[in-house]
Design a protein that fits this description.
547 residues, alpha+beta, Cytochrome Bc1 Complex, Chain D, domain 2, 3 domains, three-stranded antiparallel beta sheet, 22% helix
Length: 547
Amino acid sequence: MDHAVRTPLVSLLLGAALASAASAQGYLTPPVAPPENPVTAEKAVLGKILFWDEQLSSDGSMACGTCHIPSVGGAELRSGPATRFPGPDGVFGTADDGFGSPGVVSTDGFGHFEPSALFGFEPQVTGRYAPSPITAGYFQDLFWDGRATSKFTDPLTGATAIASGGALESQSLGPLLSDVEMAEPARGFADLSARIASARPLALATNLPQDVQVALQSHPTYPDLFTQAFGTADITPVRIAFALATYQRTLVADRTPWDDFQRGVPGALTAPQQRGMVAFETTAACAVCHTPPLFANNNYHALALRPSSEDIGRAAVTGYPWDEGKFKTPSLRNVALRNHWFHNGAPQMQDLRDTVAIYGTGVGGGFDNLDPVLNGLIIPPAEVDDITEFLHALTDPRVAAETYPFDRPTLRFERAVPNPEPTGLGAVAGSGGTAPELILTPAPFLGSANFRVGVTGGLGGAFGAMRLRVLDLGGFPAALGVRTLPLPGGPIVLDGVGPGEGYATWSFPLTTSPELLGLKLEGQWWVRDAAAPGGVARSERFIMTVE
């Protein structure tokens, strides 16, 4: 059996790529930082704290790191139906579905819950799968389509903050204002800076890494941390971006078995992995695009996994029709840790071997605009197995185990007991035979100017109210009594029309007053509904504690 069949073009490209790979062969070295933002320990630890702080989102439900967990290769830890997006046809369960990252529940410009056309009152899901930040510092442009460019511009002044090499800085600010990923629609940089200035760093996280603990012992507030990193307490978009980018440039995954093999440790790779390495760099032509030591080439290719019309990829940035369906070649470092692959999460791929095998069919994904590199390429099953084994040799054990510098805190969404916590008790059905349902995604943290609890599934147009009971006064003296606390609960008219279509939002501003810390409340939505016993339909009760 022939080991491979190739067109002359592929053979030519292969020869050039392998020559390039040979000259670049060697273990990974740290990425180069732009001169405008040199790496310092103070900026790096500030960036680490910011990256893992869920308070940077409008509702306290999302950190930058929520979608970039090291133990799954810097990608999305969450899985299942909650991570599926319906594709351009807008219909779940069809061929154009993909996997992305759950973000925030849809809201209007006032921070009130508003149903999304695709996701209703469930967290919205991004239309592309999260790429890894662990190798992001090595790329000229970032995001799957490369829209975060090497030149970084101050979003407030329009001035050039980094002339070249600032893709990480360019990328870092986008999710913070995205109304799918982390923000309310009306959020601006002034809101973000004010939120950071008033937040207690990592107040919602537990199990803080040692370097973070040390930093917070001597600099317990964000103004302190920014002063330590930049000389003054000013919290600006440029400084936020500089810190986040600096942290990511410290994530150098250079202790893989492959790196050890390059350093002269002959037993670092197993026999199948060594065979896979040879196939990877020769007959399978993988190194054409996934060039060592980064195992990427800072370029864009179309694999024709889906019609390019579904997501035109790079063409949205360049405007060139020949770029339709092209996406950035990701680094294969830590690829074996991932749950999904490719820009759309590739629902058709069950495991890592499937992702290797797709390259060896001779037809790529079978759709339009297939990259010429893949034309006629056929990889025998034995080589597919060996290459798959080789890809496991690109895992840095520190990434898999989440040890320094890839350590991180435990995030709010990972808690065994959520806060707020639904109790499962007290629900009373109304019209249509269903009880109102709670929306409890926001976090009740000190300084949240718009903490909110939503209700859906009630009677549209009816009056509703949040009924609250204090369980623990927190820092308030018991003598003040319950009635002196600022607990708004007046009537609200539910939006929507008819049984089961009503929804509303109750807001409770949580000031920075330390007395609120530890305040524990039990709450329940009541909705006027003649079809309910006693004329009131009720949600289940929930318990929340101000953090």
